[in-house]
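Q: What residues go here?
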C-alpha cells in the first residue's frame, strides 16, 4: 500500500447534473492492489495508516486518468493534415496510411507510436478505432495489453466506397471479428468494439454482420461515426433510401447504452430523441470538427435531449492526443455558438475528459478518484516558471487552477501517469508494466 500525498481535483458527479469540482488541497489517497482504499485529509489518512510509505507529489496536482472515447490508432502518423473537408481528408491523408497497415511490422510501429501518444497525454482509458486489417488489430491489442492501458477496440469494417484494399465482405467481417473478440475481449483490461467505419462505407450486409457480433459478444461495445459533415450526411441518406443517419444504425439494433457514436455535429431533433431513448453516447471531437470544418457541435441540444456526451481526440483528424486541448476547444466551440452554446466551466471540461468518458464506456470503476475506484491518475507538473506553473501558483480558486490546466496544459506538463496503481510514465520516461 502507498499513501499518495497531493492536491487532488476530480468530478465524481456530472456538472451537467448539478455536480461540482471536488478539490482537496492536501489529500491522502491510500492505494492498494491498484484500488483507492482510503481518501481524506493527509494527516488523517497518515494517522490511520502510520506504517505505509508516502509518495509526496505536492509539487503538482493530481487528476483522474483521462478517457479518450474516439481516437484512431492507424492515423497517428497523419496528424496535422490540414486544409481539407472530411471526405477529401480521408482520401488524401487517412486512407493511404491505413492501407499501409497491411504490413504487420508497419502496424506494430504505428501501434507503438499510438500508445506512446496516449500515455504521454495522460490518457489511461480509450475507445480506439482500429484498423481494417485483422493482424493490425491483433497488434494493437498486444501493445495495449503490454502497457496495461484500458483499451476497447476492434476490426474496422467496410464493403464499399473505400479503396479495394480496405474492403471486406459481411462473411469475412463477421468471422474475423468473432476471432479477434474471442482472443482479446475480456483479457486484462481489453474489450472488443464492433466498428463499422461509417454507414457510408458499410452496406446493410456489413451492418447485419456487426449486429450479429455485437449480440454474440457479451459486454462488447459498438462504435462508429455519425452526422459529421453535411456532404457525408446527404450521401448516407441517398444510400439508405432517405433514412436518417442514426436510423442506419438503429434499424440493426446498434444504438444502445453500449454504443458510442463520434461527432454528431448535425443531428435532427428526432435523431437526438432516438439516441437519448436508446441510452447511446456521443463522442464530441472538437479539434477534429474545427480542423475539417465540420461544424460547431450543438452540445446544448444533446444535453437538453438527455444524450450522454464524452470527449474524443479523433486523432488523426484531431490535432493531437491531449484532452486538455480538446477540453479547451470544446469550450471555444460553445463560446462561438453564442446564445446556442453552453458556458462550460473547468469542472465541465474535467468531467468531459474523465467521468463522462468512463460513463460512456460503461466503466464504473474509473473516471474519478473516490474510494473504491481504480487508481488511474495523471500528475500535472509544469516546469517551474512556465506560464502554467505561474498560473497555478497564482490561481484564485480550485476552479481557476483547473481552468489554467485546460488553457495552458500540454503533454509536456504530464509529470506522471498511473493505471491501476502502476506508474507507466514519469515526464519523459515511460515504461510498460513489468510482465
Ligand atoms: Zn473518427
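A:
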Amino acid at each position: 500500500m502507498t499513501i499518495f500525498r497531493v492536491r487532488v481535483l476530480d468530478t465524481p458527479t456530472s456538472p451537467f447534473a448539478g455536480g461540482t469540482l471536488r478539490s482537496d488541497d492536501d489529500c491522502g489517497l491510500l492505494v492498494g492492489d491498484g484500488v483507492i482504499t482510503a481518501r481524506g485529509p493527509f494527516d488523517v489518512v497518515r494517522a490511520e495508516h502510520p506504517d505505509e510509505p508516502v509518495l509526496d507529489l505536492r509539487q503538482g496536482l493530481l487528476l483522474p486518468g483521462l478517457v479518450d472515447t474516439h481516437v484512431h490508432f492507424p492515423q497517428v502518423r497523419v496528424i496535422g493534415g490540414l486544409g481539407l473537408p472530411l471526405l477529401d481528408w480521408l482520401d488524401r491523408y487517412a486512407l493511404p496510411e491505413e492501407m499501409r497497415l497491411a504490413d504487420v511490422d508497419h502496424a506494430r510501429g504505428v501501434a507503438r507510436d499510438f500508445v506512446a501518444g496516449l500515455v504521454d497525454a495522460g490518457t489511461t482509458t480509450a475507445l480506439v478505432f482500429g484498423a481494417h486489417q485483422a493482424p493490425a488489430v491483433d497488434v494493437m491489442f498486444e501493445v495495449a495489453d503490454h502497457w496495461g492501458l484500458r483499451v476497447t477496440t476492434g476490426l474496422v469494417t467496410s464493403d464499399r466506397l473505400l479503396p479495394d484494399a480496405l474492403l471486406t465482405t459481411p462473411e469475412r467481417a463477421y468471422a474475423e471479428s468473432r476471432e479477434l473478440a474471442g482472443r482479446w475481449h475480456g483479457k486484462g483490461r481489453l474489450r472488443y468494439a464492433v466498428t463499422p467505419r461509417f454507414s457510408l462505407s458499410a452496406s446493410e450486409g456489413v451492418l447485419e454482420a456487426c449486429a450479429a457480433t455485437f449480440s454474440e459478444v457479451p459486454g462488447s461495445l459498438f462504435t462508429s461515426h455519425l452526422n459529421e459533415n453535411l456532404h457525408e450526411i446527404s450521401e448516407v441518406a441517398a444510400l439508405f433510401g432517405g433514412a436518417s443517419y442514426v436510423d442506419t444504425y438503429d434499424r440493426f439494433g446498434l444504438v444502445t447504452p453500449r454504443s458510442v457514436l463520434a461527432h454528431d455535429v448535425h443531428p435532427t431533433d428526432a435523431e437526438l430523441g432516438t439516441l437519448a431513448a436508446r441510452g447511446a453516447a456521443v463522442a464530441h471531437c472538437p479539434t477534429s470538427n474545427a480542423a475539417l470544418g465540420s461544424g460547431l457541435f450543438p452540445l446544448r441540444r444533446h444535453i437538453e435531449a438527455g444524450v450522454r456526451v464524452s470527449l474524443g481526440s479523433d486523432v488523426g483528424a484531431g490535432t493531437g492526443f491531449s484532452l486538455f486541448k480538446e477540453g479547451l476547444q470544446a469550450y471555444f466551440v460553445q463560446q462561438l455558438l453564442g446564445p446556442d452554446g453552453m458556458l462550460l466551466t473547468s469542472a465541465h471540461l474535467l468531467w468531459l475528459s474523465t467521468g463522462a468518458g468512463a460513463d460512456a464506456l460503461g466503466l464504473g470503476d474509473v473516471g474519478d478518484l473516490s474510494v473504491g475506484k481504480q487508481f488511474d491518475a495523471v500528475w500535472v507538473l509544469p516546469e517551474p516558471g512556465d506560464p502554467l506553473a505561474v498560473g497555478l501558483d497564482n490561481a484564485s480558486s480550485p476552479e481557476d487552477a483547473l481552468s489554467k490546466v485546460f488553457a495552458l496544459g500540454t503533454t509536456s506538463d504530464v509529470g506522471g501517469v498511473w493505471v491501476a496503481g502502476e506508474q507507466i510514465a514519469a515526464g519523459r520516461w515511460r515504461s510498460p508494466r513489468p510482465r
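A: Context that may help when evaluating the design: The chain has a mean pLDDT of 96. The two ends are 20 Å apart (CA to CA).
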